[in-house]
Specification:
The complex is a heterodimer of chains A (1139) and B (396). In chain A, a hairpin with a 2-residue loop joins strand 23 and strand 24. Chain A folds into seven domains: 197 residues, Rossmann fold, CATH 3.40.50; 104 residues, Immunoglobulin-like, CATH 2.60.40; 94 residues, Sandwich (Immunoglobulin-like); 240 residues, Alpha-Beta Barrel (TIM Barrel), CATH 3.20.20; 201 residues, Rossmann fold (3-Layer(aba) Sandwich); 78 residues, Golgi alpha-mannosidase II (Immunoglobulin-like, Sandwich); 90 residues, Immunoglobulin-like, CATH 2.60.40. The longest helix of chain A is centred in the middle third of the chain and has 29 residues. Chain A starts with a helix and ends with a strand. In chain A, helix 18 packs parallel to helix 19. Chain A is elongated. Chain A has a nine-stranded mixed β-sheet. In chain A, strands 3-2-1-4-5-8-7-6 form an eight-stranded mixed β-sheet. Chain A contains 26 helices and 59 strands. Chain A has 1139 residues and is α/β, with parallel strands linked by helices. Chain B has 396 residues and is an alpha+beta fold. Chain B has two domains: 274 residues, Beta-galactosidase, Chain A, domain 5; 80 residues, no CATH class. Chain B is 29% helix and 33% strand. Chain B has ten helices and 21 strands. A nine-stranded antiparallel β-sheet of chain B has the order 9-10-11-12-21-18-17-14-15, with helices on one face. In chain B, strands 6, 7, 8, 13, 16, 19 and 20 form a seven-stranded antiparallel β-sheet that branches. In chain B, strands 1, 2, 3, 4 and 5 form a five-stranded antiparallel β-sheet that branches. In chain B, strand 19 and strand 20 form a beta hairpin. In chain B, helix 7 packs across helix 10 and helix 8 runs antiparallel to helix 10. The longest helix of chain B has 26 residues. Chain B is elongated. Classes of the chains: A alpha/beta (1139), B alpha+beta (396). Chains A and B meet through helix 1, helix 4 and helix 5 of A and helix 2, helix 3, strand 1 and helix 10 of B.
Chain lengths: 1139, 396
Amino acid sequence: MTVVVAFFVSGVALAALSELEEDHELSMEYVTPHTDWAQPYILGKTRVLYFGWGFGPGHGTDTRDLIELMQRFDIEAQAALYAQICDMPETGWHGGPAGVRRILRLLEKPYDCFIFHAVEPARLPPEAQYKVLKSVTEGAGLVLIGADDPRVLKPSYKIEPVPEFLAASDAGEAFSIKRGRGVRLPPRPDIRYRVGWEVEYDYWIERLGRAVLWASGKEPPCQVSIVSEAEKVPVEQLPGAAAKVTWQWVGQAPKMKKLRLSVRLRRDDGAVWELAEADAAGGKVETGAVNATLPALRAGDYHIEAFTDVDGKRAGWGTRRISVTAARVVQAIGLERNWGEVGEPVRGAVSLAGPAGAAERVMVELVDVNGRVLVRKNLPASGNGAAFELPTYAWMPMLLRVEGSLWRANQEISRRYEYYRVTRRNRGQWNFLVWDYPTGAAAPWAEKALAEIGCSIHLHWGEPTLMAAAYNIAQVPYTTRILDPKDERGHMLPFCWNDAEAVEKATRELAEKHRPSREHGVFVYSLGDEGVTRGCCLAPTCLAAYREYLRKEYGDIAALNASWGTDYSSFDEVELSRPDDNEERTALANRNYPRWFDRQAFACWNLVQYCAKYRDAFAAIDPQACTGFEGTGTLASGDDFDLIVRTLGFWSPYPGPGDEIIRSIAPRDFPRANWMGYTKDADSLLRVFWRMVTRGMDAVWWWRWDSAPPFRGLLAPHGDYYRAVKDMVADTRVVREGLGTLLLHSAMQDDGIALLYSFPSAYACRVEAGPSYGAYADAHVAWHAAIRNLGFQFGYVTDRQLRLGEFDPKRWKVVILPRAEALGPKEAQVLRAFVEGGGTLIADVRPGLFHNHCKPLAGGCLDDLFGVRQTANVEAAVAELAVGGLSAAGCKVDPAVALNGGTAAGRAGEIPVWISRKVGRGRAVLLNVSMSSFPRAGAAETPEAAYEVLAALFEEAGVKPQLSLQTPAGKPVRNCEIVRWLDGDIEVVALFREAGPRETAVLALPAARHVYDLRANKYWSKAAKVAVEIIPARATFLALSPTQLGGPKVSLSKPAAAPGEVLVATVAAPGAGGQVAVKLALTKPDGTRANWLPQYVISGPKGVKVSVPVAYNDPEGRWLLTATELFSAKESQVGFVVK
Amino acid sequence: MHKYGRPFWGMEWVPVIFLLISAHSFSAAEEASLTAVAAVSLPTTTTTSYPGHEGHRYTEQNATLDLGKVTYGIKYCACIDDAHAPGVGHLEGYIGMPLPHVCNWYHSGFMRIVINGQDIGTTRLSSMAAVESGERAIVDLVWHHQVADVRARFVGLPGEDHIYCELAVEPKEEVRSIEAHLTCYPSFFTSFHGRNGARRVKTPAALVVQDEQQVLPVAENWWAVYYDEVFDVAKHEGEGPCAMMVLPTDAQEIHFHPQAYPCFTRVVFNPSARRLRMAFWDFVDCTNADVLAAMPEEAEKARRFLETADLTPAGFKLVGAAETLAEVEEALQRPKVREQLGARAGEIEKWLADTRPLLTDPALQGTIAGQERLAVAVQRFNEFVWELKIAELLDF
């Protein structure tokens, strides 16, 4: 019964939490290592109302301090969080008026203590201040951390000396506030990531806990004191020095079964020794003492910690700091360089200080963040130093410690370390990029949480953090942001992009600033987000560049004059229409479209050339640099997709149809993604996530790790994931388990269908009658929907590829011209040849009415191919289109089209549509209808006939769907993408409906295949038809294989390994017709999971090698390596012995 | 009302859920459902490129009425460029409803108020204020037009799914006509997305189909559901319908003109009426059938509320209590309180002297202009009261 109730409470809480409440939730699910200082506590729970920063730059983990406090102390808390609104200077209580009302509601309940963390009480509305202060004056506690309230914590109210319980841990200044108590603590210390940061943090929370208990009047009833023989103990006296621990009840001890005293020693790096334990019962519980003997220790700082527990509840505790000293110590680790590429050796020297002793030796080690000693070398201790050189390998993590230790016989005397980074870029794999990195004392816990859901890259300005390296997270440095501000003369600020000297200096200096990033490992160098994709100015240097650009474009001045209608005698004479008209608006107004377009094209080109200067500068500091920009650029704005992809190293544009172009024309290793994270429910997040996967991205980029109201981050203020994030993470698990990377190694299919992205057409469609046919981008979007709803896939080619001879006609069966209104003679020639060679060319409307500089032509340059005459550039006629069995009202058709050899299969009024003509071995089809006005593919009201007339075009071109989705009743399922990837003979299929109803469908295959459903986790045996669940916003992935996947095979180079040895595992998928993802798990002798192997590998029948390093301090015993193939879930295991 | 779009099991568990939550000592969710919160942002000014207003200064100010399970948004927007001086211009309207969804009641202009044929929105908004939160959320918008002072008061109750609207009119000349011109895009922005819908307006007595125009008596057509037969949540299309009601005693006739894209409604009020009450629903995620089935009862409940409710903000009624003022003034005289407050004591005293007439004169508080001043005064007065109480509290 208990279980059932708990389930409902949990479920209810999930369902009932409002957005504001979820933002203020104090989830304790994410448990981090901690000391239970007073948890559970003999005096019961302390009720706390916490006020602190929850949202805002630099405050992302502040609230986690409260969770950490609640882990360590028996506290029941509510929180009211302070916030800064995204991109705004204003701050206030989160939720605005609703948040304030919530505070007032919370203040209707009683509390033992109020905590204000870095927020002054005076920031509360007066009514809330009054209620807090009234409660305090009546007996509650007030704890201010890094905050003050001089009205309340007056010097005259100060308690001096500070009560012993507070003074013992420097837990702040104490005040008496009428019947209540107050404590003022300094700001939380700046605890940086390093070995043992957790110990310092643990002690900070211990101070805070003392303050809360004292302020609440709930000091421990059992006082524990520790007296050591000396605060500084020479290493030579160990083992042996003793400490006396006593306990004494304040007042009468309560009735109890048993009191237990436990004493431990904790080094500042977290290493722990249990020193003593004693039980007392009956009349011996009031007071008592034990002696604790210290073991052999190396020099360093330690705490003796003692606890008394009564029947399982903490009754008191005490701590004492001691130092172990040595005359001879490791003074420093000097590194030649604190970073290096994989394979580069670590060189340096260990420096010693103090009088040398007998039988000394120096050891130098490479240690990972788990404390595993990966490389070890003994050095002769000659004098005061020892040089070393240690190897690095590809299997090593990004962050290593180079540790030098001094030993006398088998006793460690002293140790020091320095961090060393193995540069890693995390390329060639599926990535999850997160904007910015966690800050605050609890930041490493936040970083761990991010890493556990796959965060492999951070994008941020500034130097990469050590903790990022600790979790193998590479960086995208946000190096600059390219905008195009200009001065009053119209010159670009701070300099013209063509001012070679200024650009060289700026780019070089910027690159130099980012050397720390380069050393850490840069996935790509970002030139910023929300920037511009074009730019030019009126500076003379820019005009000179413009002239040079025109010279290259036109070749000779006569061609330019013919295009522009000018009479320049040389390119040096070329000017703007008006000296102040940077964008050639004059030319546009005068309908001199070539002159206007050339300026736009130059602006695009100019931006790319400017970015290329940064690219080169970063390449100078990092030969593997990839440079580009993100969150910038759309198809609708007429960006030069081809030039950007061709010139730069990466591009993550705004989500949209442009993504299709990039995935088609960019090399597979060209990084691309979209930003997401701007919504708060799982479905809308998943819709964007899965869209990126099915659009062939290599990563998901998430804005951002913490919350910046009104947006939410990955982590809630309590430090765990938001609920919607948990749902998203669960639904996309397979991507992180290897599917994402497998898709990068597989070929996305295109069914031989190419769309043309014609850069000049994006501009030609905006002039004359073009806008009446709809927007250029809308035509592309309509074609995408139509093709996908017919069960096909497609790729893109560009006009530049056609001009440069990069178009391979054998690769394509169908080329589609979406609103390709501007075509140059070379492009036209390539398209003609394609048709004559057997291809099918389909244009929607108005093909080739302009040349490739947007000069209007007398007719369409491909009119003869289509068998038509386009007699004028006229507004669209809106008419009812009738073709085949389709009758569709509201279609926009070109009334100026007349047949001239072509055959019209349909009409829109009197206007011919669906005009086709056989040419050579191929066919050209002019639909003569704007696709954005054609019945929208995927829409519920779109008649089947619309699909049928389109499908007939492709069928006639020899293109048939490879797979089909049907309802159980046999009707086609629309509004669902079928995306296929192929590697060898294994086909991976995604079924993805962005929005719409959930339904069960039947997927029909061309031939029987072994089918593996990753969503249902089901193997269908060999089947030609399988039932699949179409779930809106959630992609279903299937693997189809002609042979049954027999599961992985894993073997090892040796059955046993000595410490320091590296075994080599071979992971293969015997019998598989292509590559598969194989998950790896390494189990230690005690049954726990090791986390240092790659989570998965991509392998095939031949197998891949995986290094299995055995550390010098790995536990002895039998280890188990398990390989699980992702599709079939079949396992293979191999064991090895460490001895 | 939003339950109509959800599966039955969700309703079935409501009592169980409530009991379990109540048992939890720190369940804020339970408390949240008991309050409604009104909030108003600061106005923002940008430059618009809207055709006909290129380069003009454009202002926006947003309010929210958070009712717990749904939040309504009210937006004031106007082109305040000198080109329109001494009045203001409009792009698509001036009272928008951007929440719960941008479609349905139009986000950038769903209502215009026209008196004697003059659109009061040609005058710049005098104030927009959140005047009550808690048992009700209330937001006031006030215009001082040459024809009349006008206040649009939007009211929401915790846990409800609709908002009420009261138009108050204080004429400066003889009122011959009062009209509200309403615009909605039911369920979906059809034309914007290149889609065709089938707009419908259903009243208690009539069904008006797309492209029809009908003028109907309010007595028999006092509420209307605006829906689209294509964009129906039941078909996994669109956002859900919207609806309105007008208190039948306040109005004479109602004009409906559902077009392929927007649907226009014109309510002709009684010229002698000075408090005109309506209600608006935005049924996000609800199916047409559920809304059409539920609306007669929902409208009836709203009508009964509007017939009797006193929509004056609670704070306006309390603040004038002479004894509260006297307590404040007395507290201000205490030396230790003055010492705690420092210079602030003088500021409060001056403010109280200046504002006393407003705080104590019921006649002044009953006017649109008076309540407009009261909206500011109440907030400050409350702050002073709490500041004084803190000063007294810390006097030990």
